[in-house]
Amino acid sequence: MVTHGDRSRQANASGRRRFKQIGAVVALGLTALLMSGCSAQEAMRFGWPEGITPEAESMRHLWTWSVIAALVMGIIVWALTFWTITFHRRKRNSPATAEDEFPRQTAYNVPLELTYTAIPFVIIAVLFYFTIIVQNGVETKKSDPKVVVDITAFQWNWKFGYRTVQMADGTTYNGFLRDGSPYELQQKELNKEGEEIPGPANGRDDDIRNYLKFDRIETVGTSEEIPVLVLPVGERIEFEQASADVIHSFWVPEFLFKRDVFPFPKQNHTDNRWQVSSIDKTGAFVGRCAEMCGTYHSMMNFEVRAVSKENFDRYIAYRAANPNATNAQALQSICETPVSVTTRPFDTRRSTNGSAEAVATGGTSSNTTIPGCTVGAQS
């Protein structure tokens, strides 16, 4: 005969076994995390890349704490679920009763219902508040950026121009040339009847695209060469972007930020200006188009090359004094590898020797300087 005490001991033993199983699963999870080689800082990013701007760090913090909050809520929900399964189930070998057919119901517990209705609203309000705080910080634009860069996206590459640069000696370089259309420099083509063949944009009038900026110092990507956008560390930088044709998207993963690049920004009511308060790390960082823009979208890469303020000023001075020099020559003048060194995780790098199949060599994403090179000797 099974007594009530025997049933209690069996239930307790079953509960202990369940807790041991749960403990083993938790221990295995922690062991897998420790043996994966991830540092605590990497683990707390929860899959996000390491940011290189203050705005990126603020977004990472929001992401980290949002995931932690979600994990805490998940643990609570799963704990309540397993607690109910474990302690509110029919006991083994217990005689069947009418209550087993239809369990006792609890209804109209007003305090409990108000609690589990209010808690989600509190969670949403807290997340909304911190999201707005971070978003406002990311969207902040000040009136005194040290560098203003014009970004022009086109199928299927990028053009970067330096509109203004505040030099370390207090002078300001003004590189703005004019507004214009990307097609005005193209020669008009005529058919056999002598009629003009409609050009890009389905033959629409060129002057509707005169919102694009042209600067004295520009870097234009080609099918053979990925454009390298040189930027200084520790300076507030403003970007003004526009598209010459379809919608593109400017994305540097380490910025933890991307923004669509629209044609006709005024007509589309888009804010095409944004800033980063500083870039906090030198090196090479891959950039991509993050909006499907046509056949060669996957090849539409660029590289951000972050250098010291001193080398950036030398770079601008060299290009201003040598307007016919290439971007590669200007990079060499400050002892930087003249071609892109990273387009990971997709290896779509292209060289400057005219061969689209050749891969640029030299330098790494963390060390882009030319070995044995002295800046003064290259000036």
Automatic annotation (TrEMBL):
Entry's transmembrane regions: 64-85, 114-134
Entry EC number(s): 7.1.1.9
Residue ranges the record marks as coiled coil: none
Compositional bias of kind Polar residues: 344-355, 362-379
Protein location: Membrane
UniProt keywords, alphabetically: Copper, Electron transport, Membrane, Metal-binding, Translocase, Transmembrane, Transmembrane helix, Transport
Region Disordered, residue ranges: 344-379
Reactions the enzyme catalyzes: 4 Fe(II)-[cytochrome c] + O2 + 8 H(+)(in) = 4 Fe(III)-[cytochrome c] + 2 H2O + 4 H(+)(out)
PROSITE patterns associated with the record: COX2, COX2_CUA
Major place of residence: membrane
Record domain Cytochrome oxidase subunit II copper A binding: where: 144-318
Topology class, membrane: Multi-pass membrane protein
PANTHER family per UniProt: CYTOCHROME C OXIDASE SUBUNIT 2 (PTHR22888:SF9), CYTOCHROME C OXIDASE, SUBUNIT II (PTHR22888)
Entry similarity comment: Belongs to the cytochrome c oxidase subunit 2 family.
Role of this protein: Subunits I and II form the functional core of the enzyme complex. Electrons originating in cytochrome c are transferred via heme a and Cu(A) to the binuclear center formed by heme a3 and Cu(B).
Protein name in the entry: cytochrome-c oxidase
